[in-house]
Amino acid sequence: MSTNAVNTMTTTEIQSPLHRWVQKLMHSTDLGMMPVIAALIAIWIVFEFLNPHFLTPRNLSNLSAQIVVTGTLALAETFVILLGMIDLSIGWSSVVAASVFSVGTVFLNLPVWPCVFLGIGASVLLGFLQGLLVSRIGVPSFVVSLGGAMIAEGLVLAMLTQHGGSVPLSDNLSTAVGTLNVPPAWSWGISLVLFAAFAIVMLMRHADRRKRGAGEAHTIVIAKLAFMLAVVVIGVGLLCAYQGIPVLLMIFLAALFFCAFLTKSMRYGRHLYAVGGNAEAARRSGINVRFIQLSAFTIAGALVGLGGLLDAARLGVASATIGDGDVLLNAVAAAVIGGTSLFGGRGSVYGAFFGALVIASITNGMNLVGAPSSVRFGVEGFILLIAITLDTVLRQRRMRSGRA
């Protein structure tokens, strides 16, 4: 054995596991959600230093309710961005759902649950029609969704202008969803059941990958589950120290886990990532690219409708002014900050949760310290630019290594 080989082996052996992990991280072409989690920790530390009330159970409860709308719309945007496309209509489409629900319950005196499905159905229809134009005709998603946003805005104005531009909600369902918290005992029970279901699915997926000669080591998977369990216990404990988990957050988490199961454990999810990574290669491998594109816009429409109803329940009103706000920008920013690549084929629905948490944490923290909105937008824009730049750099690195 040569001297150089001995020296190389000796250097490798004396490296600590942490050193090897850092080296692997530095040469990685996919950092996943690590950057957004690091940014979130840094943001929380800064705001807790500036205002000790930031990490109190009461404020964290408010924060958990504030992320719901942005998070749900970011989930919808994630499905479209994974295709390498964009949906600019989600802001106004969400208001369409809220408008249909409010007009149906308040002025037409229809039962609440049919109005829920009518509201979500309206957004699903808009998403489906946009998906048809994109998948069947090939119109760029930017143009299609821009036109869809204008149509949705017209529908909202037609429904709400004659009622003063806003309709207050008074039904029991909206009041309960928008204001109530799940009692602590139920919060613990539901959270642990959801985590157990998540752990079972994750372990089954890990076992399947190991059978095929892929996947991570058992210790890494167990460590991830242990970390997630610690986060769940700490988070639920803090929320239960106030009044329990907000109903809004529980509904959002149910939608999040459903989307995660769909994209991570189903064949549909693998096809979605394949189409976003390379549509032509996916088509040649037998994947129905048109169906994947159409279904992604349709699923996004359903999530947009849900987000619109949750927003109306949280505010207690369906208002036309919501569509003119920063709803769309926050949703896109949350998806991108959460690690979803604008080039398509890479990302995770869990990133939408963490991205929404970053956006809401900045807004909440700025309000606590009395900072003007100009500072908040500047900070959010700065973080968004960092996320996009990092995504571009990693994509260029993947292209150089032949893994793009």
TrEMBL record:
GO cellular component: plasma membrane
Compartments it resides in: Cell membrane
GO terms for MF: transmembrane transporter activity
Transmembrane segments: 31-51, 63-83, 116-135, 142-165, 185-205, 217-239, 245-263, 291-310, 349-369, 375-394
Keywords (A to Z) from UniProt: Cell inner membrane, Cell membrane, Membrane, Sugar transport, Transmembrane, Transmembrane helix, Transport
Membrane topology of this protein: Multi-pass membrane protein
Major location (coarse): membrane
Superkingdom, taxonomy of origin: Bacteria
Function, as annotated: Part of the binding-protein-dependent transport system for D-xylose. Probably responsible for the translocation of the substrate across the membrane.
Entry protein name: Xylose transport system permease protein XylH
